[in-house]
Design goal:
The chain is mainly beta. The protein has three helices and 13 strands, in the order E-E-H-E-E-E-E-E-E-E-E-E-E-H-E-H. The protein is elongated and about 50 Å long.
Length: about 190
Amino acid sequence: MTTPVSAQEPGSGLLPSLPLGHAPFTYCLTDEATSALREARIELDAVAPATLVTDERGNRCMRGTVDEGRLNADLSGVTATARGGFAFQRADAKRAELTDLNSTFRVGRLSTLTVTHRGQKVDFVSFTSQGARLSLTGVRVEDAPLYLTPAGADVLAGEFGSSPLPAGATLFRASSRMDVLPGVLGLVSGG
């Protein structure tokens, strides 16, 4: 759910960032987003290598894999990237494709998921620390709300004439478990 950071994040002191292993993550549409998209005759789709799955309530989800992730050793944030992504597809073949996911999470700040749409970088959704737990062993994200940004709503409006959801609406619930690579903690602690 998050994207890579430089080895020395500004303000993180002298501690190096910790590499995270490749891990699956899911972005599941909320019930409200599912209803709004259905009413607009738009469906969520996945862009390979991400895949489309459904949650226990029948809502569509995009499942991807973190290609590169880093956890600040002072537990102040996480970055992660993933190839592929998600798309919104309407029956008339209009499609908003959002790829090259780059997530930057900072504790205590509004964070963003940046995507590529038509060759342009867009901060598509925002999120807070709700549902996220950071420790020196990794990152756990459970049912974290992702909110559609004004720029994200503009992308959807540009493709479909209007956005099926307003900016600020909870578009997805995100979940992931990313572990620090084995052996890294021993190096950091001097063991």
